[in-house]
Amino acid sequence: MEENNSKEIILTQEGYDKLESELELLKTTRRKEVAERLKVAISFGDLSENAEYDEAKKEQAALEERILKLENMTRVAVIIDESNVNLDIITVGSVVKIYDEDFDEELEYTIVGSAEADPYDGKISNESPVGKALLGRAKGDVVEVTVPDGIAKLKVVDIKR
């Protein structure tokens, strides 16, 4: 298991609900599907040379591992009350509009906990280099962040929920 055994996981309500939905799907529908695959594979006989059985057992192990991980994550989750997000400084839960001076473009990110980070969906982790650099900053602040391409200069344009 990962280090998340006791480390709290910061989530928005949306992120928590997503984890709960996935967990419910895995515990009900997916468990039944895998059990059915195992049953069919067992019916083929001789388990020692049964590729279908081996695959179904691997799938079952991966499924149970994911269920345990999700159960642990939801157990230690700390849900951010987004209605209380401070609009003066950037915190987890803030929606931040930044101006990237190098690329002459404005970007908008939601700062979230690492468990629900999805940069392609505009959600960056509070533990990522950019997320860390933005935390505690205010509108108008310029931060320099080391990124794979070098150093990015980002100006905080707006903070909202």
Automatic annotation (TrEMBL):
Keyword match Ribonucleoprotein: no
Swiss-Prot/TrEMBL GO biological process terms: DNA-templated transcription elongation; regulation of DNA-templated transcription elongation
Coiled-coil residues: 16-73
Gene3D superfamilies found in the cross-reference section: Transcription elongation factor, GreA/GreB, C-terminal domain (3.10.50.30), Transcription elongation factor, GreA/GreB, N-terminal domain (1.10.287.180)
Chain ranges of the Transcription elongation factor GreA/GreB C-terminal domain: 88-160
Domain Transcription elongation factor GreA/GreB N-terminal: 9-79
Keyword terms of this UniProt record: Coiled coil, DNA-binding, Elongation factor, Protein biosynthesis, Transcription, Transcription regulation
Entry-linked InterPro entries: GreA/GreB_C_sf, TF_GreA/GreB_CS, Tscrpt_elong_fac_GreA, Tscrpt_elong_fac_GreA/B, Tscrpt_elong_fac_GreA/B_C, Tscrpt_elong_fac_GreA/B_fam, Tscrpt_elong_fac_GreA/B_N, Tscrpt_elong_fac_GreA/B_N_sf
Gene Ontology terms for molecular function: DNA binding; RNA polymerase binding; translation elongation factor activity
NCBIfam families: greA, PRK00226.1-4
Function: Necessary for efficient RNA polymerase transcription elongation past template-encoded arresting sites. The arresting sites in DNA have the property of trapping a certain fraction of elongating RNA polymerases that pass through, resulting in locked ternary complexes. Cleavage of the nascent transcript by cleavage factors such as GreA or GreB allows the resumption of elongation from the new 3'terminus. GreA releases sequences of 2 to 3 nucleotides.
The family this protein is said to belong to: Belongs to the GreA/GreB family.
Name of the protein: Transcription elongation factor GreA
Protein's organism: Peptostreptococcus stomatis DSM 17678
